[in-house]
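FAQ: What does the model actually see?

It sees only this:
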Amino acid sequence: MEALLHYCWRHKLFPLTQLTTTDGREVEVIDPGLHNRHAGPDFFNAKVKVDGTLWVGNVEIHDKASDWYLHGHDHDPAYDNVVLHVCSRADTIVKTHSGLTPPQLLMTVPQHVADHYEELLTIDRYPPCYQLIPSLSRLTVHSWMSALQTERLEQKTEAIRQRVALCDDSWEAGYFVTLARNYGFGVNGDAFEAWAKSIPLHAVDHHRDDLLQVEAIFLGQAGLLDISTVPERYREAALAEGYFTRLRDEYLFLAHKFGLTPIDARQWKFLRMRPQNFPHIRITQLASLYHSQRAGLSQLVECATVKEMEKVLATSVTPYWETHYLFGHESKRSEKHLSANSIRLLMLNTAIPMLFAYGRYRGDERLCDRSFDMLEQLAAEDNHIVRMWRECGLEVKTAGDSQALIQLKRQYCDRKDCLHCRIGYEYLKRK
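And it is asked to produce this:
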């Protein structure tokens, strides 16, 4: 109930009666203040009139007035500037650390707000606000989608910044780790990130012009050049072909030279996975991309259009893997280019967020604006989340729209955080 009181105060959803303090003084809320999500009073710099006198200060909200003491506010100087204490049950008078007694406002949640909130929490249909969506104005939808799109990019930016920090503040290395993680396409994401972190790019750069050596380091660091990782029924063929042995010998030499230690190969997942997503294939595609010098941040930053970014990310496997998915197991020849859909996913989850994050870091708004432009150039994704929102009546045209709606579902709907959702606000306030 306290969260709902916060919500009603923030949006001024008050009962249609004169607001008064517990001792009978009239209260007028000029400005509810700035919502504080951190330590300290709930709202900063509020403006309220109590019996005609304007007070500017902080507001604290509790379900019961006695929670003031339960939370220790009477011993905390941070609450000395509270000019109004709002509660739904005034079971005591409160005092600040400095001995003052702030006025208390007894406030109840309007019944229609409480009823609608209960509906949002209990309706079986998903999302619970589906009935309202068709009636929302285009302005309401557009402004919320724009905010969600930015929020999603900011969230990805924070993840990128953390990777960059773990890479000794190298944005080049941070980009490579982010790119590698998304080459896992969900299932092997963690393994790819651990693998990428284990590769000293400054050392590999000395051998970048030799694709065999790049592939040897990449597969070796993945732990896939240990013969025990080859299924037993293919080991004899793998050794007879010679390519496995050649890569292994190259890796052993380079591992000794650079002091390399591979990751545990047991991290890789193969179960119920399409062969084109096997780690061997994805890693050799990355090796080809790295060898062609198109896996660098500078190449990404130079991309002015979606088409240019697609060309930078396009890659395929080395010749051996055109006829193999595993060592020793020959298959029908295929160049195994990175598919158009895979490139699209890498753009959405790696390239565009990296462009935005790097723009934030450099203070270059042109890069940030380019990120938004590219999201608008790409068509919307087609997945179960997007289809769900379309069925509810939302128009989804661009990748910017679909990314916004993914953010909406994961960060608001799945968490039942309707109180911070603009659609939830429209649902709650209706009569």
